[in-house]
Amino acid sequence: MNDIFSALETARDPETDRKYTPVELVSEAGLLIIAGSDATATAMASTVFYLLHYPESLNLVQEEIRSVFSSLEDIRIGTKLSACRYLFACFDESMRLSSPVPGLLAREVLHGGIDVDGVHLPKGVDVGVPIYALHHNEDNFPEPWTFKPSRWIVGQDGTAQENVNHARSAFSVFGYGRTSCVGKTLAYQELALTLARLVWKYEWRLQPGSSLGEGRKGLGWGREKKAEFQLWDKFVSVSEGPMVEFKDRMAGPVTHSL
Q1: Residue 181 and residue 190: Cα distance in Å, rounded?
Q2: Which residues of the chain have pLDDT under 70?
Q3: What secondary structure does DSSP assign to 91-141, as a single string?
Q4: Rounded CA gap, 30 and 250, in Å?
Q5: Mean pLDDT over each residue of the chain, to the nearest integer
Q6: Which of 18, 77, 123, 169 has its C-alpha lying 20 to 30 A from 190's C-alpha?
Q7: Euclidean distance between CA atoms 50 and 56, whole angstroms
Q8: CB 203 within 8 Å of CB 246
């Protein structure tokens, strides 16, 4: 096989020629399963949540998908799907607002220490910035609490290239550097293929009377915003909802919880 795990099985340290032990491979397998399933599922649920709470955005992504593809079977991984700019902007904006890994991905300071914003941090200190805080800083994202896929597309709603470049520089949902997410491209492919097919085949609405996934008073500090998909940080995220009704053009409504 030629997949991620087979690469781990055959990998060797270039300095010691050491391979992964069985215990280390089990640990890596657990991480890959969590990162490759839970995180993608959370991103999908949050995208559906925000599209249903911002109907204008749902209309725009419906127009894009239904104009690009002539049939459900036509929707497959490839250049046509990758060119659906608004679809991918919806993913980025949903993951900005409700990142599947909302906490900080800390790094240990190496020998000699480091100066951060005028503060010296000695060797051995763990340092990081919570992704949730970074993604809701209005210096990085104007109107940070609003779902605005147009902020990722040059030319939409006055968005300039420098605006997109700055947003990209602060977008950390997949991490940075040599330890950034190895499955980033696969995650986008999974999200795009699944959501594009849902958008093409079904009409959507929130289940009447359901508020699952929404913020509300009494849920906790900072969790009062109705239109914010609520996540709990457990390294990856834990969430509930939303409850959605999908209506096939040839069948009746079906209710699902994402």
Answers
A1: 15
A2: 1, 35, 250, 252-258
A3: HHHHHHHS-SS-S---EE--TT-EEETTEEE-TT-EE---HHHHHT-TTTS
A4: 41
A5: 90
A6: 169
A7: 11
A8: yes
